[in-house]
Each structure stands twice: as structure tokens, then as C-alpha cells.
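User: Predict structure, ligand tryptophanyl-5'AMP.
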Amino acid sequence: MEEIIPKKISLSGIQPTGIMTLGNYIGAVRNWVKFQDECDCLYMIANLHAITVKQNPAELRKHTLEAFALIIACGIDPQKSVAFIQSQVPEHSELSWVLNCYAQFGEMSRMTQFKDKSRKHADNINVGLFTYPILMASDILLYKSDIVPVGVDQKQHVEIARDIANRFNGIYGDVFTLPEPYIPKDGAKIMSLVDPTKKMSKSDENPNGFIAILEDRDSIIRKIKRSVTDSEAIVAYRENKDGINNLMTIYSVVTGKSYADIEKEFDGKGYGEFKSAVGETVADYLEPVKERFNQLMCDKAYLESLCSQGAEKASRIARKTLSKVYRKVGLA
Ligand code: TYM
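Assistant: Predicted complex:
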């Protein structure tokens, strides 16, 4: 008899703070879509994580539904993947408390994102910001996830989830699967268009630094045209050309062309021509996503029904893991 090999489980999430950027798409969401055919996938909108920084309630509610619509517009198929909103699955918060008791203060203090965010939000260094990776570990471990497709900035968080799982299993036996981050070879860190030494971020105060997935065509082309590069005027991927390297990565991911092909294509041509090509290509690429998003947002009742179906499916899986954890620990 042929052996049935179970599919791997892929889980990831995105925060609904602001609108998804090209960085989120290239670094993460594009791979979520790719994994749908080979894995059992779960993708969520991490709205519990979002409240670690101050949020306006009405906006958070709106952005959460928009982010859900946007991952579907990007190609997450709710028939193939379990797509859901984190706060609608209470098991995430429940497991998080338990795992808080199996994570060490010292290891949390070493998280670079905590250090960065504490600097950025010095007036609100809340405990949630500190324990953020434990909630993220809960997201991952509840579903026995094997693979976590993320950009490079989330790698350390996936590693800590693995450490916590390992520690827990060491005490109680095989409860959790040890997850691996999946970081794409190209595009794991798309850089800001105004400062290509910094990550492209949706929370950037300067909107010229990022491209939002839903941005209009002219604005995309203009931002790329104005992006910071160098004065060498040679389209080549190499050291000390952060701005050009970034645009080449974006162009390569969107067109499927290699860096060598791109260098050849723009050999002897200036940055103006290259930037126009990148801008036009990115704008064309995002056009269908925008259309699907607008269609989805016309039917909120349908979207909300997708959210509750997703949450129900997720909760069914999560409940099993949580019950096992409770039994092992002695809480049930
Ligand atoms: P978030 O919302 O900051 O980002 C979502 C995903 O996009 C990736 N990303 C980037 N990739 C390449 N270049 C960039 N400039 C760029 N900016 C962001 C991020 O690495 C991420 O993969 N804590 C997570 C959300 C989360 C999660 C999880 C992820 C909550 N629970 C469980 C995985 C598993 C976050 O804040 O991502």
C-alpha cells in the first residue's frame, strides 16, 4: 500500500496596522500564496499584536477587515487555506498565558524588535510589547506549524517559538512541532525608497519610503522615480548600491528576471529609464490585486462570513492543541 505522507503545515500572519506594503507582499504574502498548493495553510490577521502600539478602535476594526480582504485579493484562497482574524480565535490568548510561564525574561529582553519598538514608542513600552513573541509563538504552535513564511525581520521570533516549543516538549513529551522560518532568497528585506539602508515599513512617517499595495498607479511610479539611489548610473547588483539593489530585487521578483538579465537589459541606459520600467511594472503587477480588493470590499457581509468560517476552522484545530497543553500542565 502506498504510504500517505501528511502535508506540511504553513502558518503566518500580518498586522493590520496601516496598509500592506510591497515589502510585506514580496517578503511574506507572495510565499503564503505559493505554499497553498503544497501545504495545509493557515494565515491570519494579527490584530492582537497590533494593540501593542496605540490604536484608534474604529480604525483598527476597519483595517483588520481590509487586511483580511487584502490577503484574499493577493491570492489567499479561503477554500484552500484557513484565513482568519486572530482575535476571533480565543485559543491564541489562552495558550499565550501558559507559554508566558515557559519563556524567560532574559531571552525576551534580547529580542531586537522589542528593543527597536521600545525606542520608537518610548512613551508606551507596555508589557504586551515585551511578551509579543510569546503570543506569536502561540500562533505558530497551536497549529503544529512546520513552516512559517516570513521576512527576515521575523526570523528571531520564529526561532524563539522553536526554543519555547523545545523546552515545553522537554518537560512534557511531544506536544509541539518545532517550526522553521521560511525566508525567501530574494526579497526577505525590501528597503525604504528614501533610505535604502532601512526596512520598508508601513509605519514609516515618510510615505515616500514605502509603496502600499493599494496605492494608485501614478503615485507608485512617482515614488520609484524619486527613490534614493547612487550617482554611478550603472544598473548592477553589488555592494554599496543599496538603492539600486533594492529596485533590482523588486523588479526581479515581479518579472521573474535574474539580476544578470536585468543588468543586460539596462546596460548603457541611465537610472531614469530603469526606474520608469520598475515603476510601470510594479503598477501593472498590483492592478489586479486592487481590483479584487475593491470588489471584495463591496460585500462586507460576505467578507465577514468568510472571517467567521475561517475562525471556526482554526478554532477547531487550536482547541485540540490547547486541551492537550492543559492536560499536560495539570490545568485540566
Ligand atoms: P508584520 O505585519 O510586520 O509583517 C508581515 C510580514 O511581512 C514581512 N515584512 C517584510 N518582508 C520583506 N521586506 C520588508 N520590508 C518587510 N516588512 C515586513 C514580515 O517579516 C512579516 O513576515 N509579528 C508579525 C505578524 C505575526 C506572525 C505571527 C508572523 C503575528 N503572528 C505568526 C508569523 C507567524 C508581524 O508583525 O509582521
